[in-house]
Design the sequence.
């Protein structure tokens, strides 16, 4: 394939991946079953990314394995209403066309493990998007490295990725042990799971954390929040949650015979401190309230609808709920989207807050990932559960 | 290894190429996606200690990358806009950064030498100095104080 007999696109993709494998000591190229492409938004990959993908598509390259797509820069149905600049929309439409031409599944979601992607235990895949990588490794026990943008497109064209990093047993072994001490994890909501993930990530950094004593009843949405936050708190692409991660039912299994390099006892006070780092101290009311980072599931949309039904979003607040097209379609049929929108909220699909033009300086969110990544951009950031976000949006509760 | 008269630090090559410039050094990990504006080469993350600095034409040292996998595309775009650093030095280079450099070479023929795993933490040694990064063999050479950079460049031209 390297000699270009399959066309220039294949040659570009393969040569970049083979070189990457050489740098990181891969012994061979690995066949992967599917790919999740992080670099599907023009706003993230810019003109150079569009140029690469356009070049691959026009050279005749096609994805050899199923490939799901991360959020785009626009909601394909309502980008004009959201005031996305038309030059951005045009380039996103070109990018979408090229990705679909190569065989990409237009999921446009950062939570492809909920709708669109097939994952199973032990399966080798090549995923980008840090929360999705974390979820695939941590919750499902599939195996993926954390792919850089555009490396994921190359992997989809090649159907292969170099065998290094988290594909190898020795790099999946636990390194740091976290033991919750009298934490009432059973009572945690999704935001609390995010705070826990953020705390674990900020201490583990690039090491593989192991958390003992996680409740089996943790929901997919709660684990989604945990993985997203662990990835931004450190660079966690795999965390063994004993009781949940299939490869690590017990602490001993997670460490595979090695000893923890470090042991951390997690107390409630430390999580409170972590939570404080995720919001600013001042108390201005939020101009924007965002839910859905990572994208809301159908169940989360239904929950927001149930909470907001019969109430009204205050005129001074923009209440935005982000989700995938698939979840929005299903939740629409259940009446949830109409309930949220008739109360003054907006359900936005295919995209994320990063691409919505806004002059807002104050934000509230249920997402630890969003709170952390927004701290440098907003003067005021508040973190609260979905319930609190809805209460503040409807003006029935002071912030905080 | 430190030799008399000339400071040389051995490292492991990531990408290939040789380049020099004034070292821009931080001890804070960095997410290039949310820190680097690829169109201007400036560090735009207000929470980072290099905020306001320009990486273009310089040798960028940060210990390791954090956060978004979009950083690969950021390097590629900075390269397209001719605002990429002349070379990158890390304690540990993520594959995400390496991919950006490999694509820049393949797509635009622009070489960004990258080295990592230096035998000593080079931060204090190279700070404010003009350095040469040789990613063909895996060496950082300290050429002189930053203000001598132009002089060194002229000598090597």
Sequence:
């Amino acid at each position: 394939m390297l000699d270009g007999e399959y066309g220039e696109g294949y040659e570009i993709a393969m040569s970049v991946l083979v070189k990457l494998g050489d740098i990181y000591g891969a012994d061979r190229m690995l066949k992967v079953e599917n790919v999740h492409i992080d670099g599907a938004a023009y706003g993230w990959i810019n003109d150079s990314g569009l140029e690469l993908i356009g070049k691959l598509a026009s050279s005749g390259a096609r994805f050899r394995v199923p490939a799901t797509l991360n959020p785009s820069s626009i909601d394909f149905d309502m980008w004009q209403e959201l005031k996305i600049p038309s030059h951005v929309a045009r380039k996103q439409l070109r990018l979408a066309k090229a990705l679909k031409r190569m065989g990409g599944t237009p999921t446009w979601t950062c939570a492809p493990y909920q709708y669109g992607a097939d994952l199973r235990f032990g399966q080798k895949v090549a995923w980008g998007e840090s929360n999705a990588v974390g979820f695939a490794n941590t919750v499902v026990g599939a195996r993926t490295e954390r792919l850089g943008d555009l490396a994921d497109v190359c992997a989809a064209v090649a159907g292969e990725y170099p065998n290094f990093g988290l594909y190898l047993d020795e790099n999946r072994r636990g390194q740091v042990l976290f033991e919750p001490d009298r934490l009432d994890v059973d009572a945690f909501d999704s935001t609390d799971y995010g705070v826990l993930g953020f705390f674990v990530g900020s201490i583990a950094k690039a090491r593989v954390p192991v958390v003992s004593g996680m409740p089996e009843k943790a929901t997919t949405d709660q684990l989604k929040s945990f993985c997203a936050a662990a990835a931004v708190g450190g660079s966690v692409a795999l965390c063994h949650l004993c009781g949940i991660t299939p490869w690590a039912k017990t602490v001993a299994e997670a460490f595979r015979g090695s000893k923890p390099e470090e042991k951390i006892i997690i107390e409630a006070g430390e999580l409170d401190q972590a939570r404080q780092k995720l919001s600013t101290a001042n108390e201005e009311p939020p101009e924007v309230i965002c839910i859905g980072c990572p994208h809301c599931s159908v169940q989360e949309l239904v929950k927001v609808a149930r909470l907001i039904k019969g109430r009204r979003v205050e005129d001074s607040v923009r209440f935005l709920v982000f989700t995938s097209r698939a979840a929005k379609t299903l939740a629409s049929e259940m009446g949830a989207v109409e309930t949220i929108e008739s109360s003054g909220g907006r359900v936005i699909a295919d995209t994320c807050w990063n691409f919505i033009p806004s002059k807002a300086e104050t934000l509230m969110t249920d997402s630890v990932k969003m709170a952390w990544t927004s701290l440098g951009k907003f003067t005021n950031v508040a973190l609260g559960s979905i319930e609190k976000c809805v209460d503040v949006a409807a003006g029935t509760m002071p912030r905080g | 290894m430190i030799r008399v008269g000339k400071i040389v630090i051995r490292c492991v090559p990531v990408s290939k190429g040789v380049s020099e410039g004034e070292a821009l050094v931080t001890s804070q990990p960095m997410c290039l996606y949310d820190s680097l504006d690829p169109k201007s080469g400036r560090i735009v993350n207000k929470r980072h200690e290099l905020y306001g600095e320009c990486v273009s034409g310089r040798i960028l040292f940060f210990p390791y990358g954090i956060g978004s996998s979009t950083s690969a595309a950021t390097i590629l775009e900075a390269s397209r806009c001719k605002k990429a650093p002349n070379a990158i030095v890390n304690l540990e280079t993520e594959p995400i950064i390496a991919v950006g450099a490999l694509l820049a070479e393949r797509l635009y023929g622009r070489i960004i030498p990258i080295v990592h795993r230096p035998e000593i933490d080079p931060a204090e040694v190279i700070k404010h100095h003009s350095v040469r990064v040789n990613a063909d063999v895996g060496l950082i050479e300290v050429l002189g104080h930053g203000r001598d950079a132009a002089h060194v460049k002229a000598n090597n031209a």
